[in-house]
Amino acid sequence: MHEFEQHLRQELNPQQYKAATTFERPLMIVAGAGSGKTRVITYRIAYMLSRGIPQNQILALTFTNKAAREMRNRIAELTGRKLRQLTISTFHAFGVRVLRDAIVELGYRDNFSIYDTVDQLALLKETARELHFSLDGEDLKAILTLFSDIRTGRREWTDESDRYRELFNEFRKHLRVYNAVDFDDLILLPIELFRARTDILDRYRDRFRYFLVDEFQDTSKDQYTFIHLLSSESRNLCVVGDDDQSIYSWRGADYRNLLQFERDYPEQTQITLEQNYRSTTTILEAANGVIRNNTNRKEKKLWTGEESGRPIELFYPDNERLEAAFIAERIRTLALRERIRYEEMCVLIRTNSLSRSIEEAFLAENLPYRMTGGTSFFDRREIRDLVSYMRLMANQDDDMSLLRILNTPRRGFGRKTVEVLDRIARAGRCSLYSAIVQALHAADSPLPRRVTVDLEAFVELIHEFRDRLLKNRRDMANTLAALIERIDYWQHLVSEHPTNEKLARWKYRNIELFCESLGKWERHPDNLEPTLFNYLNRISLQSRDDEEDSEDSGRVNLMTIHAAKGLEFRVVFLVGCEDGILPHKRALEEDPANVEEERRLFYVALTRAMEKLYLTSCRERSIMREIVACSPSPFLGEIPHSLVEMHEPEEPVEQAEARDYFSLIRAKLGQQ
DNA sequence: GTTCCGTTTTTTTTT
DNA sequence: AAAACGGAAC
Hints:
7-stranded parallel beta sheet, alpha/beta, 28 helices, 51% helix, DNA-binding
């Protein structure tokens, strides 16, 4: 027998083995929480390689860069090979690759910018101003969601939304003029391209023969279309997922893709992984008790050979400060008494805003922690400024970047100047940068003399540094440093924060770090194409959780439930198990049917824990500087009571109160 | 025309 | 508590 095959037989259970060794046909792996999914995927690809499938015929798609990186590392470890030709990428990053290859066919230029939410928000405001469309009292993010939904066919125009139609059309037109694409475009444009140009599609179909999609329950309709276009001919598509862990429907994830897959690939094999290798029986039973309440799920019975383990601990602190203090104290105790390392513990939160009280407690207690997520390094103002300079130099039609830096640092250009330039740009149907150049060359410039002179200097600056960035290989970090010097960004920071030099210094330090990481990137030996475009594309797709995996562990993890998907920890604290937070109030307002997704979120949180689970629910919490009374999450009552133990507070009075509280929830649930 | 200062609003999750 | 906006001061 094949040597590696034997190894697999030893390492995997029968279902896992079958999943890892089936690759010449469509395959759906339904992988329950903790069932060794990543293990199976990595072994599967390693197995394919061992059977002589060339690396460059395999395409594996994941959702985060982190997941992609981890998968690559683990396969590399397993096979001891370099894997230069193996494509493991996020959907979006792969979309960029396709576009870089052929976006010209769609009438864009290949130095396109990628607009994230912040850019889109700015563009929306800009467009509204032009159209004299008042955005007073409007929820801008909701408008962007509407636009995205319209674009991806998730929603149709209605009588109610019709008033945004013109805004939408103009918004799309602008993106086009700026030679910019958004996140939806990264999937939609490749689809458009493949449909319009079958020769290009055929090229990709020839190149890639084996496909794997991780976290399949979180793919959108378009992502499915995309992978289906690529794989429908060779038909070796493997999807891996768990409908119970689908928590991204708000971003377009559509569980119906599971059904679509069954229809499109009727010859598929389906394998369900039900043995859980992660959690104690207690934790698993709690999770099962919760998820059972969802309708419309693929029936699974997760089981584990583990012993029952320790009870789940439930605590009702009076407020979020006590909640944080309790968690900090527990962490310290567990570390001291049970020798559990900090990095083996994790605090999970529903919303980023909940991190505040926890962080304060950790800082006060001197507990080392690491918050994954939150504001990304690249979302910091000072970094965005520099990135905007770079983006403008890469793509001079990128108006949003230009507007950001035109007067940063202050150059004396204000609203009026922009208005004039904007008029020229609109008349000529061109970008602002072209408008500036035009205005400078025009005989009868509509701009005052002083402004013209300053604009000239600005254009020269952009030109000079653009040349340097594009021409000199592996010298971008130095060039950027020179730019920072030239525009005297330090002075700018000082004048922006006149009373807070510490803050200014911190921001300047961030900038230095940014330069350093750019330098590291462009000088890395594996980086064969260290161009400005590639760098910008890379950082636009860099999410919050995969910045510099600083290996300095020994720190407690703090993250949102969404960010914790796919991870596991010996001890998990779930914060804010309150009605209105989990399930989240706004999610339910949007659509009461969202409870099920909120329940899945709760389920994902519970199943991250290996040994010990703490749940806390505050009686009061200050939300937007107001103190609000909170009631426990209804999900708490879905956990079998025998598995839960009340945390014993210091005063016996409170203990009795807490017990009353618990029976209160039970009563409440009984009514439903 | 630009900058500064005081007022208002905000917090669901993210590629 | 911080950012974003709008009106008054320079």
